[in-house]
Design a protein that fits this description.
Mg(2+) binds at residues 73, 97. Belongs to the thiamine-phosphate synthase family. With 222 residues, the chain is α/β, with parallel strands linked by helices. The protein has a single domain (8-202), classed as Aldolase class I (TIM Barrel, Alpha-Beta Barrel), CATH 3.20.20.70. Helix content is 42%, strand content 16%. The chain contains ten helices and eight strands. The protein has helices spanning 15-18, 24-34, 49-63, 75-83, 100-107, 120-127, 156-167, 182-190, 200-203, 208-220, and strands spanning 8-12, 39-42, 68-72, 90-93, 112-116, 136-140, 174-177, 195-198. The protein has an eight-stranded parallel beta barrel with strand order 1-2-3-4-5-6-7-8, surrounded by seven helices. β7, α8 and β8 (195-198) form a beta-alpha-beta unit. α3 (49-63) packs across α4 (75-83). It is globular and about 45 Å long. The protein starts with 7 loop residues before the first strand and ends with a helix.
């Protein structure tokens, strides 16, 4: 399953941030998708696996065919949700998660498999895999971000652009992630990003619909 070259705004959920305003993950996801977000990653690193599966299924059922839904880290959850008939496209994996080749083998050729890649060494490893193993790269962090305190040193827009140039021969689109602000959106698109992944900018907003719409407008240049 290949990713489109224009993904726009990619929402990554954060249960702690969304609860600041009492909306819950589903409320924020609905608001963001209503505003034009078309890709949602369900992320909750602290949830028991059964709770994460239930949340993933609920998100997928809530958005239907209006957005693509993937799960952060947990190939088992993505597989279980898909087998239960929910519209879950696949998984986004970090470098310490299940190897992407194993995830692809479990999920099948029609699934979405994303991978975080922040260094030339990550790209070298990706180049050794068969084409089609990975559909989408997540490159960042653009800026330091409290939503992922263990991220490597921030790359900045220029660093993301360097990784993007090195990744171009692999033919895999990428989204820029990690502390992405509205002011970053246009230069990241100019650097070749297929989209921008946003956590705090939407999840922590008092009005997630308005915040998501602002990112969507910034991406479209409106």
């Amino acid at each position: 399953m290949s990713a489109p070259t224009d993904l726009g705004v990619y929402l990554v959920t954060d249960p702690v941030l969304v609860d600041r305003h009492g909306r819950g993950v589903l409320g924020v996801v609905r608001a963001a998708v209503d505003a034009g977000v078309r890709l949602v990653q369900v992320r909750d690193k602290q949830a028991p696996v059964r709770d994460l599966l239930a949340l993933t299924a609920a998100v997928a059922d809530a958005v239907g065919d209006r957005a693509t839904v993937v799960v952060d880290d947990r190939t088992d959850v993505a597989l279980a949700a898909r087998r239960a008939g929910h519209r879950v496209a696949g998984v986004h994996l970090g470098q310490s998660d299940l190897p992407v080749a194993a995830a692809r083998a479990l999920l099948g050729p029609d699934a979405h498999v994303g991978l975080t890649a922040n260094t030339p060494e990550h790209l070298d490893a990706l180049a050794e895999l068969p084409r089609g193993t990975v559909d989408l790269l997540g490159v960042g962090a653009v800026h330091p971000t409290a939503t992922k305190p263990d991220h490597p040193p921030a790359l900045g827009v220029d660093g993301v652009a360097r990784i993007a140039r090195a990744a171009r021969p692999l033919g895999v689109p990428f989204v820029a992630t990690g502390g992405v602000t509205l002011d970053d959106v246009a230069p990241l698109r100019a650097a070749g990003a297929a989209g921008v992944a946003v956590v705090s900018g939407i999840c922590a907003a008092a009005d997630p619909h308005a915040a998501a719409a602002a990112y969507v407008r910034a991406w479209s240049g409106a």
